[in-house]
Every structure is written in structure tokens, then in C-alpha cells.
Design goal:
alpha/beta, 447 residues, four-stranded parallel sheet
Length: 447
């Protein structure tokens, strides 16, 4: 027992780094710090997340459409913690006491509603908040009741189940299809909305091919993409936007621009112009905001989107021992005189920066400011195309890319994330294994 007590005392004396949120940035940071500090006994690294498993959020539209299986891409936090020398605590942060330096974690319940883990407090010396964001429905009537968002794997799975059930129901009925049946309305034509529209065009046709012979996808399955801005993909260069819109219209996806949705109903949506768009399934993919609990979190500065305001060092403005990264952080983009966009590449860069800086803070050295490097925007339109721009000093500005080369660059973003989590050897071996087994797998998820 003496050896165990000595170990506990040693661990208690270590500098405690707590990371809340196991998304792309949070998990990458926990992994890097675990390998760098946890393995060598230089700090105690703890990751807190409400879920058991991690999933790369930019893939959610493919899970929703049925192109990918959730089980093949989910990563156990407990396993990752074991492999990379950090601790995992399951739960949702719902408060903070900065004077005592403790994170307040809500109780966790099992699938039957029984308490699994009681409410608790987790102490920290340095805290990194990386809880991401969720869809912002702007209080639109009916949105919460009748529209699905794609913020979490559970929502993507629910959408896919409803899609498959809608097709099975339509194929079995003897009466004509109702006006909204087999129609999907996607509100918001940012990257998620555009990519989902293209992916659904492909997977619904593949799904119907598995014996649903009473459904004609060209006649019966209709996808409508609705955007309030003057063009789709408003955050990317106009040339990318026009190329994506032309491709979607070529697939007979109905694209409505300059249309603001004012109400979501069980059988469709209504726009500000009074237009009624029938839909059996509605997805809300417009706008983001950080979780509500970040608003006025023990006096930390936040903006109207609940994002924590941070300095260029990623320290929050009112507490140098509390950091924030990713979608939940409002970080200045000095060169553009605005905030850094909420993208996976920004979260990846911020995690890499803090993995270098937090050991410096422990060693008593000053932090260096983080600078965002914009490598451009890429939008995947499934098997049809990938379009985007690549940016950088070597290019002398921006370069429009599309087709196979753009697709390779798009896939490489996910590979970079996997590399940060697993290292090069495992990523290469897993990629080879998937190439070998790919021919034997169904092209679309059927359940």
C-alpha cells in the first residue's frame, strides 16, 4: 500500500492540465500533451467529455447520408487516454470556480436514466476549454421541434434512420406520395449544407437500388438547399461558390438563395417571402453558437455567440490560467481585423500551438502569440467533385482547385487529424487495410 500512496502523492504534486471537450482540437491537445508531459511524469493531463467516443465533426454529413458507418470511425476516449498517457473523465462541464480553480461537472446518467457518475469537481492549474459549438437556429419558430441539426453523432444517426424509414414507408404504401414525402429541406448553404445535399443525392439513389423498386429517385426524391445570403458558401471565394452551385443544380438539387426561413413545420418550411417548401425531413445547418453555459462563465468575457474572448496567446482575457480554442473561442485574426473562422483547420493549429506553449508556461517561460495560417477552403461534393481554394505564401495568393487534386487535399485534412492522434505508422496501415477491404463493403448504410 505504501507504493500506491507514494504514487498518489506524486501525481497530486504534478501540475494539472484539464482540457474540456474532446473534439478535433481538444483531443489532439490531450494526446500531444499526454505524450510530451504525461508519459514523462511532468504533468497530469485530464480530458473531460460528455461522450464515450470521439468522431471528427466534418464527417457527420456523410454519416447522416449513410455513406459512412459511425462504428468504423469512432475512437474510444478511454483507449486513447491509455495509449497516450492522459486521464479521461466522462461528463459535461456546467460551471467553473476560478477562485478555487475547479471545473464543475454535471452528473452522468446511463441509457436507462440511472445516475452513472455523480456531480463532481475537478481541480486544475491550467484549464483549456474546447467545447466546440452547435447550430444556431436564431429562435426560429418550430426549428427545435421539427428540424434536425448535425452537431453530434447521435443526431446524424437519427437523421439517417428517419431517411431510411421514409424510403421504406414510401415504397410499401399503396396510396400516392404526399406533397412533402421523400423531400428534404436543408436550411443553410455553408459547407455542411452543401456537402450534405450532394451526399444525399448519391446515397438516396444507392439506397433505392437495394430493392425499393417502387421509388423513382429522379421523380420522387427531392432535395432543396435554402440560403439567406445572396449566394451559397458565403464564407468562401465567389468562384468556389459558383462552381459548387452549378454542380448542385446539375444534380437537380433545388437551390434557393436570398430566402430566409421564418418557420419550420412538421411538413415543410416557410420563408420570409411567404414561400412554402414541402419537406418530410428538415436539417438546420445555418449558423453556429457556443454552448450556453459559457455565457458569463464565472466572469470570463464572452461575445453574443457565447464564445470566450481570448488573446492572441489563446488565454482568456480575464484569466491567464484559462485558455480556449476552436469554435468556442473568439480569437483575433490580426491581419484581417476580425475573428478567426470556426473551422477544423483553425482548431488543429491552435491545439498544436498550445501543445508547445503549455510546457513553456509550466517551465516559467513566456507564451508566444498564435498566428492563424489560412490554407484555403475545400468543399466536398461527394463522388461528383471537390472544389475550393488553396492559399499560402508559395502560391502568392489563392489558387482555385477542383476535381481529383482537390479531393486528395480534402481527404488529407482528415488524415492530418488521424496523424495527430495515432502517428504516421498506424494511419498508413489503416489506410492500406481500408483500400483492401473497400470492395467487400456495401456502398451505403442500409439501417
Amino acid at each position: 500500500m505504501t507504493g500506491r500512496n507514494d504514487h498518489q502523492e506524486f501525481m497530486a504534486d504534478l501540475h494539472s492540465i484539464v482540457i474540456v471537450g474532446g473534439g478535433a482540437g481538444g483531443l489532439e491537445l490531450a494526446t500531444r500533451l499526454g505524450d510530451k508531459l504525461g508519459r514523462r511524469g511532468k504533468a497530469r493531463v485530464t480530458l473531460i467529455d460528455r461522450s464515450r467516443t470521439h468522431l471528427w465533426k466534418p464527417l457527420l454529413h456523410e454519416f447522416a447520408a449513410g455513406s459512412m458507418d459511425l462504428d468504423h470511425h469512432a475512437l474510444s476516449y478511454l483507449a486513447q487516454a491509455r495509449w497516450h498517457h492522459f486521464r479521461f473523465q466522462r461528463g459535461s462541464m456546467d460551471g467553473l470556480d476560478r477562485s478555487r480553480r475547479v471545473v464543475k461537472v454535471a452528473p452522468t446518467f446511463d441509457e436507462e436514466g440511472r445516475e452513472l457518475i455523480p456531480r463532481r469537481e475537478i481541480p486544475y492549474d491550467m484549464l483549456v476549454i474546447a467545447v466546440g459549438s452547435h447550430t444556431n437556429d436564431f429562435g426560429t419558430p418550430g426549428a427545435r421541434e421539427h428540424a434536425l441539426s448535425l452537431d453530434m453523432p447521435e443526431q446524424a444517426e437519427l437523421f439517417h434512420q428517419r431517411l431510411v424509414n421514409a424510403c421504406i414507408r414510401a415504397n410499401a404504401q399503396v396510396t400516392p406520395l404526399r406533397s412533402e414525402q421523400l423531400k428534404v429541406a436543408i436550411i443553410g448553404a455553408g459547407a455542411t449544407g452543401v456537402e450534405l445535399a450532394a451526399e444525399l443525392h448519391k446515397t438516396t439513389r444507392e439506397l433505392v437500388a437495394y430493392g425499393l423498386d417502387k421509388i423513382d429517385p429522379e421523380r420522387d426524391v427531392k432535395i432543396t438547399l435554402i440560403e439567406a445570403a445572396p449566394r451559397i458558401l458565403p464564407a468562401v471565394p465567389e468562384r468556389v461558390s459558383k462552381a459548387a452551385e452549378a454542380l448542385l443544380r446539375g444534380l437537380k438539387v433545388q437551390v434557393l438563395i436570398g430566402e430566409r426561413v421564418t418557420e419550420v413545420m412538421a411538413d415543410g418550411v416557410v420563408t420570409a417571402a411567404g414561400k412554402k417548401i414541402p419537406a418530410e425531413l428538415t436539417v438546420w445547418a445555418a449558423g453556429i453558437k457556443a454552448p450556453e453555459f459559457l455565457k458569463d462563465l464565472d466572469g470570463l468575457e464572452s461575445n453574443r455567440l457565447n464564445q470566450l474572448v481570448v488573446r492572441e496567446t489563446l488565454e482568456t482575457t480575464r484569466d491567464s490560467e484559462v485558455f480556449a480554442l476552436g469554435d468556442c473561442a473568439a480569437c483575433p485574426w490580426v491581419e484581417r481585423r476580425r475573428d478567426v473562422p470556426p473551422t477544423a483547420q483553425a482548431a488543429h493549429q491552435q491545439a498544436s500551438h498550445l501543445a508547445r506553449m503549455l510546457p513553456r508556461r509550466i517551465a516559467g517561460k513566456p507564451l508566444k502569440p498564435w498566428r492563424y495560417r489560412d490554407f484555403g477552403s475545400l468543399v466536398s461534393l461527394g463522388e461528383y467533385s471537390t472544389v475550393g481554394t488553396l492559399m499560402g505564401a508559395l502560391l502568392g495568393g489563392s489558387l482555385f482547385v477542383e476535381g481529383l487534386f482537390a479531393r486528395i487535399m480534402y481527404v488529407s485534412l482528415y488524415r492530418m487529424h488521424l496523424y495527430a492522434l495515432h502517428g504516421a505508422a498506424k494511419v498508413i496501415l489503416d489506410t492500406l487495410a481500408k483500400l483492401i477491404t473497400r470492395r467487400t463493403e456495401p456502398r451505403v448504410k442500409l439501417h
